[in-house]
Amino acid sequence: MDVKRDILWRVYLSYILVILACVAILxxxxxxxxxxxxxxxxxxxxxxxxxVDIPAARGTIYSEDGQMLSTNxxxxxxxxxxxxxxxxxxxxxxxxxxxxSLSICLSQLFKDQSAEWYKNNLTKAYEASEGNYELRKxxxxxxxxxxxxxxxxxxxxYKSGMIAQEKNFRLNPYxxxxxxxxxxxxxxxxxxxxxxxxxxxxxxxxxQLVRAIAxxxxxxxxxGEFEIAPESGKDIVxxxxxxxxxxxxxxxxxxMIQQDARSGVAMVMEVKTGKIKAIANLGKVGEGxxxxxxxxxxxxTEPGSTFKLVTLLSALDEGKVTLDSKVNLEGGVWTYxxxxxxxxxxxxxxxxxxxxxxxxxxxxxxxxIALNSFSNNVNQYYKHLSRLRLDSTSGIDLMGEGRPQVTxxxxxxxxxxxxPWMAFGYNIAIAxxxxxxLYNSIANEGTMMRPYLVNAIKEExxxxxxxxxxxxPVKVASPNTIRDLRIALEGVCTNGTAKKxxxxxxxxxxGKTGTALVADGNKGYAxxxxxxxxxxxxxxxxxxYTCAVIIINHPHQPNHFGASVAGPVFKEISDRLYSTYIxxxxxxVPSFNLKDSQAYHYSVSKMSLAxxxxxxxxxxxxxxxxxxxxxxxxxxxxxxMVRQQLVSDSTMPDISGLxxxxxxxxxxxxxxxxxxxxxxxxxxxxxxxxxxIQKGQQIQIELN
Length: 704
Hints:
elongated; 29 strands; alpha+beta; Beta-lactamase; 4 domains; Penicillin-binding protein 2a (Domain 2); seven-stranded mixed sheet; 704 residues
């Protein structure tokens, strides 16, 4: 009996211990759930929730006439959380009632897969209760609005499971035009105005509590609620004129391709204000291909003969010479300090005036003027360089401008040939923007304006800050010197190296050609790479714009002179601006008739051209296809060339040269609303050629 009692006691004890253990487990579970539940739930949430930065919407960069140059475009990544309860209620009734129509809508919107394909894939993801099904990435805002109205999705995020993650990307509507000036904000690689005004444009990021779902995707815990709301960036209004920028870039591009050049820059400045209306920077990126790869406008380089203006200014202002003073050009070759100074051509001239030496761009003449004027007091010459701000940056509101490289007395490299070589643009390196600013000061009667690119900072249309033109305090030279310099610059275009370029011009031009042999890195000057330049202003008797064109040619290019390479680019720009902006403004009436050889370019319907040519018995060479509706006509006199003009349904064609009737027909056929100014033929269109267009979009055209 004692053994039996002992066994039963042990069984009862074990049973009691098991019961106590169960009670303890249940008690602990109750304690964790009811007493510590809030703590553990918050700890769980902390593993799946976090506060993230919400990027602020970046401000927009506008042109002076209000066109967007750089702006934010929203894109959306679309996911579906098939775990949401409403999708599975009543055996998935809501899902199955909408899947067919949803699949048809998706197929019609994206046009990449059939409706059956979408139905099968969505059904598989639904049955697997996928929490992060990727439907589509990077869809546009209009597509997102359509998507939100589709069957099932229109029920909202918490019923349909559709999750839209919004992201902004930066877009330049005019793409490559002015890219290095306007810039593009992508990651940390900002350039141009995007970099210079980054703190203004970027705004302030916000903070939001989000929770993680499958696949690393996060969604807000409370839609529309932020720890700190993001603050959008400010907008900036630039001085850039889209029309002038496009004209400048196109003119430069044509010459770059023609010359197979390495790089080039063309700039236009408004004389009275210093506003930069256009900067085109083009570098070779492939065979026959060019892009705005670097900002050549702010990179220091040896200026060549355009620097002769500085030498003439210094000598005239110090009273060392007059325009009528004599200088011996030595036939075009002169030996000084054991080195030969050569003119571009061995012209054989000896006796010449200072004016003639400048007009013909004589290196010998300018070297002699500098030596005769300043060899006894070199510092006097350098004082003028400082007054002209050639030993400091231009002050343009664009980061990255290179500092000038000036060899001064006392420097290790300064020697007996420094001054005479500097007189015609060597032994010194300055940025093209400085050369432009210098010539603009002569056009502006000796007042040097600070070049600038931003007119105003705005917030939601309200002006927060205006930037006004700023003149540097010191006059660059005396009024008499400025008068003589303007005579000399006009003389270059009427009697000197650029006389052939402007022989039939409707307006006067003042400027200077430049041709410089430039170094090619470690190879030095052995590659015979020449820099072709033309800098000037127009109209010379009432200057409105100053323009600089600098092109680096490929090695051993036979045609490398400033007048024949950079000069035509300048002339194309000045002709377009004169006819578009200046001629009517100044009410200038030409006092002579154009010769038949005057070049022309316009667009016309092929049918009209054939009819006119037949009536007037004008032969022409037609390279367009037989079914072409519109053609471009160009040439001079009776040398008429006809090329096909491609017209796309979705992009803006070039309507320059069209009569109003034809321009209206072409624009209205595309659904554009036309606003026109003036009469005659089209000289300007507010929507650039090649831009994407939509029905109902407004376009302004100007007639000559």
